[in-house]
Amino acid sequence: MPINGPSSYVPTLNEFLRHWPNVNTALGAPLVLPGGATLLSATEVRDELEDFVALVQGKLNDVEIGRGQIEILKLASLERIGEFNRKVRGFLGQTAFVSALPDVPSITSAAARFIEPLEDMANLWGKINAATIPGFTGPLLLLGGYSLATFNTDLTAIKAAYTGLQDASQSLSLERLRRNEVQDQAYAIMRDYRAAVIGSFAPEAPLVLSLPRLTPVGGSTPASVTATVVWDADEDQARITWTESTAASLAQYGIRFCPGPDYSTDDETVVGSVEPTEPRVMLTLAGLPNPGSIASYKVYVITTEGNESGSNAVSVTRPE
Question: Is the pTM here over 0.85, yes or no?
Answer without folding.
Answer: no
